[in-house]
Design brief:
- This protein is an alpha/beta fold.
- It has a 4-stranded parallel β-sheet, with helices on both faces. Strands 2-1-3 form a 3-stranded parallel β-sheet, covered by helices on one side.
- Helix 4 crosses helix 9 and helix 9 packs across helix 10.
- About 35% of the residues are buried.
Length: about 300
């Protein structure tokens, strides 16, 4: 008899890396409790099922390997099975705020990063796709600045307790500053926002690497989920393709020589794909606090605090 813990969560509106981060917390809990973990995202709501495959496929296995190499189909009648609904309240929840701001800043490096990294394993089919597309899009070019710049519903809605995004103009200025310093050849821009893409394209022109990715215009009246899914529900395998291209974008970003990033969940993928920024020459992650909260500011003295 074996002891299994089935880990899953409902994720109607959560992105792939938010799902990964929360599920991984459940995996670590299961292991510490003496169970062999099996991820079940077949019987929980999510946006990534392929067409006509809702509740028929385990979408975790579309993208990642099972943590112990065991699937739901391996469970026997005599085995002990518990079910754990993973939550963001877990002490092992690995958020984007565990990603260091720079290569020298290890203050947010959590003690179980290596455990999280152990479970970040794209499945064989996904890894083959990532490697093949990387060669097609990037080739042998090494001197690339990678930028993760979220916009859309982050800026229009400012969702409570989500990381504050810098204004795109400030990110452009940072990219120009780094060009003067490093003289990079190309820019890999990871963004889902049409306006941000056009701003960068107008500024840097042929330095921007073109990529066939869905980009959207978001207003106060709609959210990214509405735009992504509801308006494209007739496109074959749209949710799956969305997740696959998202991972590809983060994978390419993780291999860039220089990185400017913001703090949505995608930066976790970049951090893990890069093996904790192992081969980067420069990293800068914006750390601006959260929407809807007061961000604590450190002052040098009482005068600065009064007059700031």
């Amino acid at each position: 008899m074996k002891r299994y813990c089935i880990v899953g969560k409902d994720a109607d509106s959560q992105g792939l890396m938010a799902i990964f981060s929360i599920i991984t917390a459940g995996i670590i809990e299961a292991v510490k409790e003496g169970y062999t973990p099996i991820v079940d995202m077949q019987h929980f709501n999510n946006m990534y099922f392929k067409d006509n495959r809702v509740y028929k496929d385990n979408i975790w296995e579309y993208f990642f390997g099972q943590p112990a190499g065991v699937s739901l189909n391996d469970i026997k009648d005599e085995d002990e099975v518990v079910i754990k609904k993973a939550t963001a309240n877990s002490p092992y929840y690995f958020t984007s705020y565990f990603v260091p701001k720079t290569l020298d800043d290890k203050s947010r490096h959590c003690e179980y990063t290596d455990e999280v990294l152990k479970y970040f394993k794209p499945c064989k089919e996904m890894q083959a796709y990532l490697d093949e597309e990387y060669k097609k899009i990037i080739g042998d070019e090494k001197d690339i600045l990678g930028i993760l710049c979220r916009g859309s519903d982050y800026i229009s809605h400012r969702p409570h307790m989500h990381p504050i995004m810098p204004e795109p103009e400030k990110v452009i200025e940072k990219a120009k500053e780094l060009f003067e310093k490093f003289h990079y050849k190309k820019i890999w821009l990871a963004t889902e926002d049409c306006r941000i893409w056009e701003m960068f394209k107008n500024e840097f022109q042929d330095k921007i690497i073109d990529f066939d990715q869905q980009r959207f215009t978001i207003t106060r009246k709609n959210e990214l989920l509405d735009t992504h899914i509801k308006k494209h529900k007739d496109i074959k395998n749209f949710g799956y393709e969305l997740g696959r291209k998202y991972l590809l974008s983060m994978y390419i970003l993780s291999k860039c020589k220089y990185i400017i990033g913001t703090r949505p969940a995608g930066i976790v993928a970049v951090y893990l794909f890069s093996k904790l920024f192992k081969n980067q020459s420069y990293v800068y992650i914006y750390d601006l606090g959260f929407y809807g909260t007061k961000y604590l500011v450190e002052y040098k003295n009482i005068y600065e605090r009064i007059f700031s």
